[in-house]
Fold each of these.
Amino acid sequence: MARDGEGKRELVIVGGGPAGLAAALRAVEAGVRPTLIDERPFPGGRVAGGHRPAFGLRNPGPPDGDWERQQRLLSRFRIARERVEVLQGAVAWGLFEGGELGVLHRGRARPMTAAALVLATGAHPRAVPFAGWRLAGVVWGDDARARLAADGDAPGARVLVAGSGAGLPLLANRLAGAGAAVAGVLEAGALTDLGWEAHRLLHRPGLLGDWLRNHLALLRAGIPYRERRVVTAVHGRRRVEEAVVARVDAAGAPVAGSERLVTCDAVVLDWGAVPETALARLVDCAHDHDPRRGGWVPRRTDLLETTQPGIFVAGDAGGLCCQEAAELEGTLAALGALKRLGALGPEDAPAEIAALRRRLARLGKVEAVLARLGAPRPGVWELCPPEEAFCSCQEVRREELERYIGEGYRTLDHLKRRSWAATGICQGRICEPFMAARVAGAEGGHGGAGGWIRARPPVRPIPFGAFGDR
C-alpha cells in the first residue's frame, strides 16, 4: 500500500481555496474521490482571513457577501470531507511529465501521480517597492488578513491602509474592528477612471451593496478615504513611525509638492495579486499576457483545460477573479477533469456546463471593470528610488537593474542571471512584477515584453532532509 501522500491518484486538486473546494465537491457528486492538496492549515484560501471573522474582534464591521458565500462553501465541504482525501499543510513543490507531482507532507517529499489534475493554486500579493518598504511595520494585506483570522490582532496600534482595488475599505474596517486606529485609506486610482464602464458593476448588485456598506462604515468610524493617494516612503528607527503620503496623477506618478506626513506604526499595503502559475509553467503550459487578469495566465479551453492534456487551471491561478467566479471555475474544471477520466461521458452535463459558462461570462464583465480599477498605474513603479533594493532576497537595487536593462538585457530570465534578482527564497514572486514593469518601460509599455522568469522545481522552499529516505 502506498504511504500517505504517495502513489497514484485519479483526480488531484492543488489548492484549498474556493476553486479547489468547488472542484472537490463536484468530483464527489460524480462518485470520484479526489485528493486535495492544501498548504494552509485550514481550507478557504488566501482570502479566508479577509472574509472570516476573527475571534476577539471588538467590532467586525459590516457583513459582506463573499464571507457569507465562503461560509456556505465551507459548510458543504465539511459535510463531504470524508469522501475527499485531504492533505492539509502539504506543499506541491514540483510538477513533471506524466502528471507526477512532488508533494511535501508531514516533513517528507513524496511522489504522487494524477490521472487528471486541477491547479487551483490561487495568487500571491503584488509588491510595489518604495523608499523604506522593508522596514518593520510594512505589512502585506494578505498577511494582515491572516493575522486577523488567526488571533484577531491588527499589525499596529495606528495603521495606514494603502494600495488599489475595491477591497481596501473592507480591509480597513476589519483592522478597525480589531481595535486599530486606522489613520486613513489611500486608493491610488479613482472611481471616475471607470467612466462609462462603471455601469457593468450592476451585473453584481451584491458587490455594490458591500462596497457601499464598507464606505458607510468608514464614514461612521471617521476613517478618511482618499483617492489618487499613495505612500511614497516610510520613516522610522526600528519600525515604521511615519509615512510620506502624496497625491498622484492619472498615470500614478506622485505630484511634486503634494507630500505630507502621517504618523503611524504600521502600513498595510494591498496592490492586488498575481496569478500563481509556477506549476503550470514547469510543464510548459502555454500562457498569454493579460494585464486585466493579473499578468501571465494559462491558455485554456472552454472546460479550462490547458495546452497540456489532463491539466486544468481554475480560480485566480487562471486569471484574477472574484470568489463567485472562482467557485464556478472550480466546478467547470472538475467537469472537464471528470470527462477526461471517463467518469462523465463526452456529451454529459451540457446544460450545467452552458449555465456555468453564461454565469462566468456575466461575471467577466464585472471582473474587467474591477481589474481596471485595481491595476497599478505605470507611475507607481517609479516610487522605488535608485538606491532602494527591489529584490529583498538578494539586495539588488533599482539602479543596478536599470544599468543592465540599458546594457541590452531585456528578458526577465537574462536579467535574473545577470543581476541575481529572483534567485532567492521567493523565486521572483516579489520582484518579478517590478522587473517586468521596468522592462516594459524600456520596450514601449507592453507588460509582457520581458517574458517571465522560468520556473524551476522546487517552486516552494522545502528542506533537504525531506528527501532523506529517497
Note: The first strand starts at residue 7 and ends at 14.
Amino acid sequence: MATMTFLVALVIGVSGLIPLNTGQRRVVGRVNIPTSSVGGDSSLKTVSQIGCGTWSWGNRLLWNYDTSQDDEIYEAYKIVRNAGVTVFDTADSYGTLDLNGRAEILLGEFERRYQSEKQQPTDTTNQWWNLGNMAGNSQMADDQAQQVATKFAPYPWRITRGSLVKAAKESLERLGQSKLSIAQLHWSTANYQPFQEGALWEGIADIYDAGLCEAVGVSNYGPQQLQKIASRMQERQVPLATAQIQYSLMTYQNCKDMNDACDQVGCKLISYSPLCLVSDLVYIDVPAFAFHLSNSDFICY
C-alpha cells in the first residue's frame, strides 16, 4: 500500500505540475525532475523541485504505522530517488511515543541502503517497469546525495538556544549524517509562548553557525513572523532559504500573501500537502490544480 501511495504522488508530480523547461534536470527514462535554487546566500544551491515528506513514517496514531512496513516504504523510497528526487522533509517529532524520531532514522538507513545497492550490478533488461529502458537509457541520473530538511519542534522545554542546537545534534545522530541541508523551525510560538520565540530564532542561527546545516528555514509561519525572523537572520548573517506552509487549492485564499512575503525576504516557499490533506482530496480538480502549481517558484512536497 505504501508503494502505491508514493507512486501515485510521483506520477502526478512528474506529469506536468512542475515546468520542465526551467533549471537543470536529472533524467531517468521518461521521468524529469527539475531542480530549483533556494533562497538565501548559502552553500545549498539547488534542490529537486519535487520532494518527499515523511510525516507518516513512525506515526502509529494518525497513520497506523508499523515497523513491518519498513521494507515496503523503502521500495517507495527507491522509486522516488530513482526519479531524481533528492530533498526529503522530516522532523524530529515525526514518530509517536517510543518511535519518536523514527522518520529521521529511516531516512538515514534508507539512503545508506540505497547507495549500497546502487553499487551492486543488477540486470533489469527484462523488467517492464524499468524507466531507463523505456527511453533507451539505463543510467540512473541521480548523482546527488540525499538532502534532508528537518524541522525542530518548539517543545515547551526548549526554552534556550542551546536546547535547539542539542536537538540538531540528536537529529544528525539519528540520520547518521554530519550536516543537514535545511534546519527548520517547525512552528512559531508567538501566539501562545512569545518569550520562547527569541530563543528559537537564536538557536536555529546557532545551528548554522556551528556548521550543522547548510541553510535554515521556517514552517507554519505567517507573513508577519516571516518578516521578523528574516530580519533577525539577516543581522546574524544566516541564510533563510525556505518557508513551509500548507499550500493547495483548498488553502490558497488564506495563504497567497505568503508568496509576496517570501519574495520580499528572498526565500522560497515550500508547499506541504499540495494535494490537500487526505480528507479533502475528493474536491480536487486535477487539471486546475496542475495549472495552478506550474509556478516554478514553488518547491512542492
Note: Residues 2-116+142-300 form a domain with the TIM Barrel fold (CATH 3.20.20.100).
